[in-house]
Prior knowledge:
Blueprint: E1 4-15, H1 54-66, E2 70-71, E3 74-75, E4 78-81, E5 91-94, E6 101-110, E7 113-126, E8 130-133, E9 144-147, E10 154-160, H2 167-183, E11 196-206, E12 216-219, H3 224-243, E13 251-256, E14 261-267, E15 276-277, E16 284-285, H4 288-296, H5 302-313, H6 317-323, H7 327-337, H8 343-361, H9 372-384, H10 389-402, H11 406-412, H12 421-434, H13 436-443, H14 449-460, H15 467-478
Parallel strand pairs: 12-13
Antiparallel strand pairs: 1-10, 1-11, 2-6, 3-16, 4-5, 4-15, 6-7, 7-10, 8-9, 11-12, 13-14
The structure holds zinc ion.
Amino acid sequence: xxxxxxxxxxxxxxxxxxxxxxxxxxxxxxxxxxxxxxxxxxxxxxxxxxxxxxxxxxxxxxxxxxxxxxxxxxxxxxxxxxxxxxxxxxxxxxxxxxxxxxxxxxxxxxxxxxxxxxxxxxxxxxxxxxxxxxxxxxxxxxxxxxxxxxxxxxxxxxxxxxxxxxxxxxxxxxxxxxxxxxxxxxxxxxxxxxxxxxxxxxxxxxxxxxxxxxxxxxxxxxxxxxxxxxxxxxxxxxxxxxxxxxxxxxxxxxxxxxxxxxxxxxxxxxxxxxxxxxxxxxxxxxxxxxxxxxxxxxxxxxxxxxxxxxxxxxxxxxxxxxxxxxxxxxxxxxxxxxxxxxxxxxxxxxxxxxxxxxxxxxxxxxxxxxxxxxxxxxxxxxxxxxxxxxxxxxxxxxxxxxxxxxxxxxxxxxxxxxxxxxxxxxxxxxxxxxxxxxxxxxxxxxxxxxxxxxxxxxxxxxxxxxxxxxxxxxxxxxxx
Length: 480
Ligand SMILES: [Zn+2]
């Protein structure tokens, strides 16, 4: 691997969070019955012309500004001509010559190493329709269907410079990009619903060389983890090709998640799309005042928020990074902190129990029922000794599913620790009676025997005793 350097660039398509499509009034809502959100404009019927959606321009400008781009004050749309069944007009309206935003960057961190990745451009375009294959993939299916509900949904395409060097860097770039777009309200960035999609261009060159090798483009990656795996696989594959004395073929390849490999899909020439300016859609002139106003609406972004959580609340860098990686987590954390003062304890619960349960159920934070106030109350119950930390986790799981207050759950399920000394003394006496051997062992100096006895008491109380108190009481009773 040291003999080669991977040159990786990402093209990310992000659906803008508008109610209606880019050039018509059809709804952009996801998951509706096929071909129910269409009209002559987005079906590309002859004679139909659209009108540009102002909100899409605003969101695209916000994306550009949040990614440290320059905004072009004079920008317009172009026709990119190609044929595909999901593109009924025979051309896509996009921005070829003068994108709305250029020359930005975002900062990533991989294994503690910071890196700035430059962004070439951010441009607005319409989404094509969606092909649905009757069985399996485009490679194997005998029939395909087209759903035009997506046709004309506004997108921004965000094109990085080919400055990424590994799958891990690509994943970090996507995570940061997703967080920024979520913080700024540009998109709901749901990869599983296709509102964020990523293609990767990958080539290799001898280390130290500046000449670019032939590149392949990888498609069909459905998660950030898949992007990382696909890139790692493809880099290895290209190394093998070169090591065997062959050359890498410029082509489009598809990622097969199950097999964990990339497969050739079609050769990719550098085609000329014969693009030209779209005359039917008005040019967009943005004043510097308008751009400044838009800049003023950019909220605190993930890096700044992370810095603040470290500086103001003393969170470790790692915790602050995890918590600010999503706007909803960051807001949940800060809302909990308003009611409970220990930032580190809160971050432990968010990174431990909350994220674990979200992952286990494949849920977003917004879908769970647990509230910041609920978590704060739970932590207070643990601090008071009403329940143990271990019990707290059980209560939290119920809060997560049912959204009830922890006090109520503890009461209903009889989970509070047995702090009634008389009751506990009875149980301890029984355990001592039933276990003469460990008792004798302990009394003759075998210190570890106490652990067994504590365990027996915990078992008899179904874990509802405080282990520290049990230990102390046992020692008192067994002292000679
Ligand atoms: Zn329409």
